[in-house]
Structures
1.
Amino acid sequence: MKLKNTFLVVLNLFVLSSFAQWNVATIGNIPAGNAFDVCVADGRNDGLQHVYNSSRNDGLYEFTWNEANHQWDRTTIYSGITDANLIQVEVGACRNDGINRVYSVEWNHNGGHIYESTWDGTQWNTVTVYTEADGITEIMIGDGRNDGLNRLYIGGYAAVGFNEYTWNGTSWDRVHLYDFEMEGNGFVGDATNNGQNEVYSTGEFLRQMTWNGSSFDSTSITNTFIWPDPFYMGDVRNDGINRIYANTNNGRHEISYNSSSQNWDIISLTANGKRGDMRMAKLKSDAKNAIYTTYATGWNYPNNSLIEYKWNGTSYDSTVVVDASTGATAMLNAGVGRNDDTMRLYAPNYAGNTMLELTWADPYVIPTTNIANIKLNDFNFNILQTNYSIELVFNKPTEKNYTLNLISINGKVNIAKQIIKGKSNFILNGIRKGVYIIRVNDNLQSISKKIMVL
């Protein structure tokens, strides 16, 4: 993951005259059509980012950037499922074994499935976690109980409500949390800036769910919104404070927790809202976060433009990234899909059945910091950190296999990986801030080093 000062090689590139600073490329098509959700993550546990895309007609697909051939390779994770209507896709280590898996959920009134797909090194294996009684509309992954365990959170229509799934080592334990209807996608995170995760979900109102040690307490953040479909949390003002951003039937809004009044302060970004997606990303060389929003065609709402909202110090400036004719009309995600440290935005074209990649002319390149060095015999491991991952760079290609463990200060093994012979570097993605022990073992000796991820 070395920093590169190279020109971007973009397939099927076209630049719109009125939006000339955004390069828009088609990275591939979805065979069955109706490309919907997208997630950029290391679903294969190979240290590489891949782009995952769900289809409301058929199945789940993976796009991988082939640097040697300068093209995107498409892999079918699964397809041909009867009545498949995949509404969301997420990637995470939900079994708490250090292995990322791809999770997708189905919006189907005959019974919504939760699918788990695992790469075994040769092929994708997909199993059904559970089949809900009605359509599923949201999936979230995170430590909602603040006990160090990731869980799946699933929401859907009235017969589904809101449920939590925990892997017990053998099977999934399902806990039904609430009966109210969900629609859209929420998150697990610290929106009150108190150092504790809570679960935030959609429905008729924004809802906050807090684990009290034995159950979840549910609170409506506001009753002024009408069906907040997607919403997102992040430091969009770049002031170190997390806020919630909601796309609703009565506009787009920013919601900040006021610790003094213990209430939520709401400001309107625009009265123009309704359905679509929201995503915070740092895509430009000024290293400033912005929020990106879409409408989604096919949901009985107008096909509108992809908009950027950026804080100017006193208010939000809104700018059209690409207009509706470009077709960025479904969900959004951002990441280093080409594994070159350059941040890009990824957006399905719902009606056109394609996946789009959007790159700013002067993009944000993730900086790298040297945080530690360890030596095992004559082998040096130089440990570099970006703001989303750790990279081990070796002084020469590995001559044997190594085992790598990332251990939290309470002794829990967060990540366990194999570094195979012939590697020059190795990447660990999705590392949270904190203090860890990194341990490398070659079956004869092991060495450990304390590192701090900032």
2.
Amino acid sequence: MNKILSILATKKFWIELIIMTLGMMVTAAAVYYFLVPSKLIIGTISGLSIVIAKIFEGIGINITVGTLVTIINIILLILAFLLINKEFGAKTVYTALILGPFIDLWNKILPWDAKNAAGEYILAHDNPITGSPSVMGDPWLDLCCFVLLLSAAQALMFSINASTGGLDILAKIVNKYLHFDIGASVSVAGAVICCTAFAINPFRMVVIGLIGTWINGLVVDYFTATLNNRKRVCIVSKEYDRLRRYIIDELQRGCTLYEVTGGYSGEKSIELEALLSKDEFSKLLEYINKNEISAFTTAGNVSEVYGFWNKNKKKSKSHAELR
């Protein structure tokens, strides 16, 4: 009990709770406004549930999509606890439970199927392929809007070791055990699910769904790389110790020193290397320019950092004077 209370008292818990809540509101909006009306079957658990419900309906068994989503999510949540880790599983329980209520909330706030006095949809238009309602009036536009919103939410969730539930759990398992990029993992798991739509949808709609699933994986990788982007900074300077102390004491980051030899001059120098966030890199450049430090600086983007990375920078800041 004390451990639970200590977790609830942390700033990290409440920040991640807010992120998860906002992420699921975006996910619910993507599903409600762009997936449900157009009946696009993208490689998601919701799409799989729609297919299974239709198949069961064809053999005389009536089971709702919501019930199937719940059953599948329970199975996947158990797998998340067993195969990934308890933190990921616990966070996903929360996100999986609030998805349905948030979809209902969007339905109450701004229903896509609301009609005017003439009996016409206010938000939706006819899908030219299936004839069913579509918010954007075109399946490709519905697809783009859905993928952008869902991918942004997925990347945000993955950055705090959580997920939007369902397919994300399968993707995380593929990512952990087969070592695929998280975007590729989403694509692999989603493509298998998407192919089940051949049972209920015309060929063209299935192809659109497959393309959407593939694009979803690419966009997840893009958003994930953007959120996790770091700068690998390499500096050669005679005042390397001054820069080292600034990085450690002011930016509160680690760095590595290498002895290098100039290919042209043959002189031995010290190269300093550090991994910094974009904001920290800007501060370092500002410090170098402000203090007129002679330095040869190069920087490259790093999209993934494994091992120790001090996100919270809890280390006490040194107030030693920089000379």
3.
Amino acid sequence: MNFKKILLIIAVLMLGFLAYGTASGSLEETVFSNIPYNYTSHVWIPPSQQNGSSLGGFYSIYGKGEDFNFTIRLPGAETKESPLDYTKEGLNGTGHLNSIDITYNTITSLYSHDLKGAMFNTKFNGTFNMSCAAWTGTGSFSNNGQNLTGKFKINGPMTYWTGTFNVKEDGTRLKLQMDYVFYPNNSPQKAKNVREVIYM
């Protein structure tokens, strides 16, 4: 169940990265709206406890302009998790960029093929919806040109999750830090605060 919120955040974060990386020749939103993109990469979720096992897989983001779809697959995770939490179909979702503001640093990053830099230097915000197994979720994200942050909520048949995330550079990787609360449905008095980090 730990990877549910992680998957959600991964999808959010990679949205801006992908859209700008593939739209490197476009400076106008009207042009950007007509550019298709498709990006796939690996994800690694470290163990949540000492001597625990990690999870690995891939994510894909694909769309056109401001509207996008995403999928996240963790092969083998369906054998370790409840079918209420994860199945082999993985996580699937849709999203929308509400606004986009290409900066000078966006352009210079794209010119030097620094897609990660382009993501962090571009101002944007948007929303997303997703589902996996028996749960659904929603969220929002924004980047002011320096900080990429967001919020998310997950409603499951047994538990409820709500929290925030922050994305930062970590060498050649991206680090996603999540702070969230989860509790059994209808039992907020049993809420637990959790901080987790994953890498892409």
4.
Amino acid sequence: MPVWFAAVFGVVQGLTEFLPISSTAHLRILPTLFGFKDPGSSYTAVIQLGTLLAVLVYFAKDLWKVIVAVFTRSSSFDAQLPWLIAVGTLPIVIAGVLLKKHIETDLRSLYVVAGTLIGIGIVMFVVERQVAGKPTRPLDAMTYRDAILIGLAQMCALVPGVSRSGSTICAILLLGFTRSDAARFSFLLSIPAILGAGVFQAREAFQTLGRDALPALAVGMTTAFISGYAAIAWLIRFLGTHDMTSFAIYRIVIGIALVAALFAGAIKPF
């Protein structure tokens, strides 16, 4: 993989990991547009560590408060947050192990990507209409039941095109929380999932890329960190005053364009 393409790949990864438009879908389409071979889910999982670093840096103060609360045995929500995240992470861990083969093969079909882009776009549009004007709950009112339901939504993001942030934010909104809190918890929930996937698939990524692995991974992770940090900061501000309708429309338009390209034979599904 050329270093310049690894840089582009990382930028797209960082931006789309946190915007509810599906990083996996865009990274699946990108090589096809440039005429490169799909580097596979393992490469994507490893450069996501750059976006993980972006989450850790952006939420450093929040995470420090959590650490202090845990070690001082506080009864505050900050002390409970790691347990909520742990419970919310269980579904994606279990499904990821059980469905690994399918995630890396069948589900990477561009027909699947097109379908989930359109389908989740419609879901996002409906969710926004459903929650509009309804009273909201404070984030510290979150329960373990809420965490499990949000975790099940995150599990769906194993299917390319769904979007981790899109699925979890939709679930959190339906549970009655604000959009800004939804984005914040969604990003924090991504920490163990991204870390686990990146570490677990690092060896496979090196084997797939061969001698080009180190520079491609290093450049991809660096640009993913920079663009990921910018995406987090922008989206939290954006959701403070806007809903996700524009993202829903974008997903549907891209999905329809992808279906048209597939049926026209302009691109191949694998």
